[in-house]
Specification:
Elements: H1 9-19, E1 31-35, E2 38-41, E3 46-49, H2 52-55, H3 64-74, H4 89-100, E4 104-108, H5 111-130, E5 138-142, H6 151-155, H7 160-163, E6 173-176, H8 181-190, E7 194-199, H9 215-225, E8 229-233, E9 269-272, E10 284-288, H10 290-293, H11 309-324, H12 327-347, E11 352-358, E12 361-366, H13 374-384, E13 387-388, E14 390-391, E15 396-399, H14 407-422
Parallel strand pairs: 3-13, 5-6, 5-7, 7-8, 8-9
Antiparallel strand pairs: 1-2, 2-3, 4-10, 9-10, 11-12, 12-15, 14-15
The chain binds pyridoxal-5'-phosphate.
């Protein structure tokens, strides 16, 4: 079979089944092309993408400006490793540091790598700056977290499927309930060895759980009072997804007027990935100010591909698109519209319990048992009606379209979703 032979959907699925490890359970649809908010399958059927590759494609599929930056750089210089300097990395580091309001940036490739990087920086800070005794540092995490798939990260997951039979687990983590300030305060007081608190501003994979309005600000204040680093994993919530540049949105250069009324929280360590490249290339990063980032010295950490010239060029372009196309503002406005339209439907319906979210990171909870296959079947029906979404956990369906969507497109999607849901009413 030649590389350029066109496969049918069934052929492509059969190949993955036979030759690929079965580490995912994809919705049966085989995509071959994407543009803006749309993707096409190999038979030519067009769909609205309502997942955006887990919020990596915030800028829309194959954004010409980002693709252009990538192809230009790919024809010039792709990889030097960090054994030598290259003339793109510094530009990216300056651009992104100023964009998000931090002194420094450490570039990696995937979200999980960036989380690992943040944990390492936090531990080193604990020993060298805070003065915790060697090997005693502990980091507080939240129940039902999702931070990636490495051995250390799954060590503090409580998803049995992600964890079981992958031990022994990395030590040094304390798990508390999400959105529970008392639990955080208790954990902070429980030990002199707490180095950091790692948290998702909204728990995306768990099912788009939005914490109470003052949770992040108060959690940050508690961490400050105990000299503990507040580490925000914004791999999914960051880069305009929730209607602001960052879901924590502290001291950033976002000019979004819609931020007012929500507390500003400046994380000590910020973790970004996914949409940092607009979905065209794996780019992740950790940002912090000098007193924290300066604990990292030559040889402490690295990655052959992290900070390569293509990644740097792509990330600058991806952030420029967010700024120039005012995607945070668009996500804010369309998110309000989406939830209000769905709430109108929910009042008349018994199949959906509720819609929740911020900006264009939303989810509906299906009115059925958590282990039912109703949410999966609804996603199959949505696919048939030209819209792609996927259940997160059990009976929860996440809705996260690219942020370049127009109001008319969004209303079209609302009508596809409500029409589809109606067919599942009892
Ligand atoms: C996706 C995600 C990660 C992991 O990113 P990968 O690029 O898949 O390794 C980490 N944290 C959060 C919150 C995520 O959504």
């Amino acid at each position: 079979m030649a590389v350029l032979d066109q496969l049918t959907s069934q052929q492509a699925i059969d190949l993955e089944n036979k030759y690929g490890a079965h580490n995912y359970h994809p919705l049966p649809v085989v995509l071959t092309k994407g543009e803006g908010v749309y993707v096409w399958d190999v038979e030519g059927k067009k769909y609205y993408d309502f997942l955006s590759a887990y919020s990596a494609v915030n800028q829309g599929h194959c954004h010409p400006k980002i693709v252009n930056a990538m192809t230009n750089q790919a024809q010039t210089l792709t990889l030097t490793s960090r054994a030598f300097y290259n003339d793109m990395l510094g530009k990216f580091e300056k651009f992104a540091s100023e964009f998000f309001g931090f002194d420094k940036l450490l570039p990696m490739n995937t979200g999980a790598e960036a989380v690992e990087t943040a944990l390492k920086i936090c531990r080193k800070w604990a020993y060298e700056v805070k003065g915790i005794h060697e090997n005693d540092a502990e980091i507080i995490v939240c129940e039902n977290n999702f931070h990636g798939r490495t051995t250390t990260i799954i060590s503090f997951s409580n998803d049995p499927v992600a964890r079981e039979h992958f031990g022994p687990y990395t030590k040094g983590f304390i798990k508390i309930e999400y959105d529970n300030l008392e639990a955080l305060e208790k954990a902070l007081k429980s030990s002199k060895n707490i180095a950091g608190f790692l948290v998702e501003p909204i728990q995306g994979e768990a099912g788009v759980y939005v914490p109470s309005a003052d949770y992040l600000a108060k959690a940050k204040a508690l961490c400050e009072a105990h000299n503990v680093l507040f580490i925000a994993d914004e791999v999914q919530t960051g880069i305009a997804r929730t209607g602001r540049l960052l879901a924590t949105c502290g001291n950033c250069n976002c000019e979004n007027k819609n931020c007012s009324g929500t507390p500003e929280v400046k994380p000590d360590i910020l973790i970004l990935g996914k949409a940092l490249s607009g979905g065209v290339y794996p780019v992740s990063a950790v940002l912090a100010n000098d007193p924290i980032m300066n604990v990292i010295r030559p040889g402490n950490h690295g990655s052959t591909f992290g900070g390569n010239p293509v990644a740097a060029a792509v990330a600058i372009a991806a952030l420029e698109v967010i700024r120039d196309e005012k995607l945070a503002e668009n996500a804010f406005v369309l998110g309000e519209l989406f939830r209000s339209e769905l709430n109108k439907y929910i009042e008349t319906s018994n199949i959906v319990k509720l819609v929740r979210g911020k900006g264009l990171l939303n989810a509906i909870v299906i009115n059925d048992s958590e282990d039912s296959d109703t949410a999966w079947n609804i996603c199959l029906a949505l696919r048939d009606h030209g819209l792609l979404a996927k259940p997160t956990h059990g009976n929860i369906i996440r809705f996260a379209p690219p942020l370049v969507m127009t109001e008319n497109q969004l209303l079209d999607c609302v009508s596809i979703i409500t029409k589809t849901l109606k067919a599942f009413e009892k």
